[in-house]
Amino acid sequence: MTRPSVVIVGAGPRGTGLVERIAANAAELYGDRPLDLHLVDPHPPGGGRIWRHDQSPLLWMNSLAEDVTMFTDETVRQEGPVRPGPSLAAWARAVRDGGIRVAPGLAADLAALGPQDFAARRLQSAYLSWVYERSVAALPPRIAVHEHRRTAVRLAGARDGRQQVWLAGCPTPLVADLVVLTLGHLESTPPPEQRALTAFAARHGLTHLPPAFTADSDLTALRPGEPVLVRGFGLAFVDLMVLLTEGRGGTYTTGAGGELTYRPSGREPVLHVGSRRGVPYHSKIGYELPGERPPLPRFFGPAQLDALLARPGGIDFERDIRPLIDKELGFAHYHRLFTAHPERTRVNWPDFEEKYAAADPGSAALQALVGASVPDPADRLDLAALDHPLAGVRYRDADALQDGLRRYIEADLARRHDPAHSPDLAVFHALLSVYGQLIRIGDRGPWWHGFFSYLASGPPGPRLRQLLALSRAGVVRFLGADTTVTADERRGVFRAESASVPGASVEARALVEARLPEPTVARTRDALLRGLHTEGAASTAAGLLAVAAADGRILDRAGRPHPRRFALGPHTDARSGGAFARPRTNAPAFRQNDATARALLTFLRDRTPPSAGPRPASPVPAAVRTAPTPEDSHAADQ
Questions:
Q1: Which strands form 163-167's sheet, in the order they lie side by side?
Q2: Region (Disordered) spans which residues (predicted)?
Q3: What is the tally of structural domains in the chain?
């Protein structure tokens, strides 16, 4: 009898997390039945493309080592069993102590890493590889894993039959009962505006780098000393900043007062950076939250979502969801302010809480309540001001803007490392709680993801200190808010302007779009995903693949879930904020992985007799690796 099989396309952190959940649930749901798991990815399993070892050692993770885990805990609301495991920090400590062995070459990174440090991405790659090997080893003996270092290019098969997954360079497909797409972050074809800028650059001998993963970009065309316009002030910019400064031989020195000074190598371009907000993402918060935490969720939890989902006519994000988010974030902020810093309030918490609960978000009654109860405006939560910090701010010239932005960044660093402002950390926890709820409603539009990233997923504090040093050295120049770039055909240059310095402009022969490609199925460069969309898989208004919230089954345009095809990750409308997570946060990705793993095993169990398939005379090898062929070396990434 043919052995049941599952093909998982994409063996990075999301695919690894799914394997871990299959291993955790197999004994309960699948018993001693045989199963072949095929993992398809041109990059090594565990880290995949984004977290591969082969990238600059200068690039860091964006989270503290103690805030990174691939393992479930008792906070995760899932049906499957908890299988605890170490965070990145605990894993590194175990490696140093000799309890865990890893490949050589990481001794320096391991020795320098503490719980409150930001690990090099290459170290995270080793952690993810270890998690993968551990997860494979935890599978029952009759479940075999087959690794295919190739790219999946096509998926075919009837709804009620076995599926065929075609791999680049292979004459015959993999045949599977079920297929799961854990594709991770993908490249996409630039939209018309970007294509027009690329064509303009080609006509005039300029350089235009459209949205891409910075670690994969060819930056050699950005020449020393020349101005480069950069649109985007998030994490893609931070990577660009690092690779074009330290990556080109520049160094930092620390003065007596702790201030960094940048020593240029002479090989750096001059980066003129701007964005819609005109400021970098907020620094990571550098302290813990002692004492009572806000009881979340309060105003945006399962009960509120149940009521919204039961409404006829669907949900409008701005009308129905955003007011509840605002109220949830405000509740977390004021709960922390009143309970941890009562000297900065005029009333007691129970009285405030009662009136806050009764007031509508954004209403005059709510504003009056906050104004009467919280005397210092700096202690009041103003989400609009947070989202647009330079709105209405004008500088007399570009030099004044540089001074103003440096003061803004210095103030942000000071605030995000001062426990006196601990309501900020309470809001961070509320943002995580909101994200966990939003996966139930699918596509959330462009505002939420950007706002979440700006407040909750900013760079490590040391990176912003480096940015200040680069600004003082003249290697980075700030453009301001509402930055626009135009293509000047007459002069043959790119020109940037902003609302922050009216009338001023900067010209350059190079433009870098420092942001990730849009996760759109209509323009994705991934042939398999593009083929699914062409053949009828549903997508949202934002271009994300539509999936069932319960288990990740891919939906068609009639809203029907495919019985044999699943998808997890940022290319779906169930985006969960990352394949790994902070411990003890009921991480959405872990819940999704568990639900999908249980759906896979249940489907296969109901179609596989307990004694089906030959029992091997010796244990099945944990993983059978299929080596890549030359034609795979340039294939699209999973």
A1: 152-156, 163-167, 174-176
A2: 561-585, 605-638
A3: 3
Which pLDDT band, with edges at 50, 70 and 90, does 290 fall under? confident
Please tell me the predicted confidence (pLDDT) of residue 185.
Answer: 86
Closest to 51 (Cα-Cα) out of 82, 16, 86: 16
In this structure, the number of other CB atoms found within 10 A of the CB of residue 434 comes to 24
CA–CA gap between residue 22 and residue 302 (Å, rounded):
26
Residue (of 57, 216, 9, 7) closest to 638 by Cα position: 9
Per-residue DSSP letters for 32-87? T--EEEEEE-SS-TTTTTTT-SSS-TT-EEEEEGGG-BSS--TTS--SSPP-----
Structure confidence at residue 637 as a pLDDT band (50, 70, 90) = very low
* Neighbour-count burial of 355, counting CB atoms closer than 10 A to its CB (0-12 exposed, 13-18 middle, 19+ buried): middle
Q: Are residues 177 and 76 in the same domain?
A: yes
Beta-bridge partners for 253 = 261
Give SS3 for 561.
Answer: strand
Is a pLDDT exceeding 60 seen at residue 626?
no
pLDDT band at 441 (very low <50, low <70, confident <90, very high): confident
Mean pLDDT, residues 501-529 taken together = 94
Q: Quick one: 92 and 165 in the same domain? A: yes
Which residue shows structure tokens 């098969």?
157
Strands of 95-211, DSSP E: 118-120, 143-148, 152-156, 163-167, 174-176, 178-181, 207-209
Note whether 482 and 419 are same-domain residues: no
Strand order in the sheet with 143-148: 553-555, 561-567, 178-181, 5-9, 35-40, 143-148, 623-626
Residue of 500 and 630 predicted with greater confidence? 500
Residue 437 belongs to a domain? yes
- What DSSP state is assigned to residue 319? I
